[in-house]
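Q: I'm writing up a methods section and want to include an example of the input and output format. Could you take the sequence below and give the corresponding predicted C-alpha cells, formatted cleanly so I can copy it straight into the document?
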Amino acid sequence: MAASFSYYNSNVFVVAVTTSLLVGSLLVAFAGNFDQDVDITWGDGRAKILNNGKLLTLSLDKTSGSGFQSKNEYLFGKIDMKLKLVPGNSAGTVTAYYLRSQGSSWDEIDFEFLGNLSGDPYIVHTNVYTQGKGDREQQFYLWFDPTADFHTYSILWNPGNIIFYVDGRPIREFKNLESFGIPYPKNQSMRVYSSLWNADDWATRGGLVKTDWTQAPFTASFKSFNASACIWSNGVSSCSSSNSTSNAWLSQELDSRSQKRLTSVQKNYMVYNYCSDTKRFPQGLPLDCTVTTKA
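A: Here is the clean output for your methods example:
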C-alpha cells in the first residue's frame, strides 16, 4: 500500500497520502477480466472476483483489509479503472489504487481515496515517487458522490508526463523535468496495485476520526480495468519499432482545452498542494514546483 503522512494546513486537516526506444507500436493490453489480469495478494478471502471476472470487491473488517496486483508489469502506459468507493461512514478507511516498482529506490504513482463521515466528501490524495522519494502530495474533493456509482480513474504515464484523470477530466500533471535535475520515473517497470485498509491513525482529519467498526465490513468495488501499455517481461518491452496509431498515448500531453479543464479543477476542487505549502518547506519550495511555475 502507498505511503502517507499527515499534517495540518490552512484550517484543514490534510492527509498526505532509459527511456527505451518506445517510439513504435505496442502490444496493447486491454484487460477486462480480473481472473486473467490480476492476482489477489492478501486479505484471506476478503477480496473476491465475481460475475465471471467482470467485478472485483475488496473488503475490510477489524481483522484485516485486502488487496490485489496486476499480473503484468508495465513500462509506460494508460491505466484505467472504474471504482465505486466505500459508502456511508467510511472514516478511517483508505482505498488505494496505484502503480509501483520494486526495491528501495522505487517509483510510484498514487491515487488514494480517504474515507470520511457520512455526508462529508471523500478526499482524493495523489502523489508521485521517484527513486524512493515522494512528498509531492496534491489533494482534491470530487464533484460527485464516488460511492453512488462507478467512476473512471486513470493514470497516463509516458516519457514526457504523468497525468491523473477522473472520468476523463485531468486533475493533475507531473512533467518530466529531468533537464532541470529532477528525477522522473522512466527506468523501472511497475505493476498496478490496489488495497483497502484501515488507516484511522491519520486518514480522516489527521486521525481525529476513528473507524467505526460497527459499520464493517467496508467494501470497495472495481470493474473495467484497462491497460493500454508496454508490457515489461524479462527485461523486454512489448513495444516494437513499427509505427502505429495505437500508441498515441505515448506522446500525449495536455492540449490547451485540457489545460483549461485542469486549471478549473485545481481552482475549484484542490484542497492541498505541496507547491503552495511554504510552511512545510521553509527553506524553499521543491524545485519541481518552481520550475513548473516558470515553464
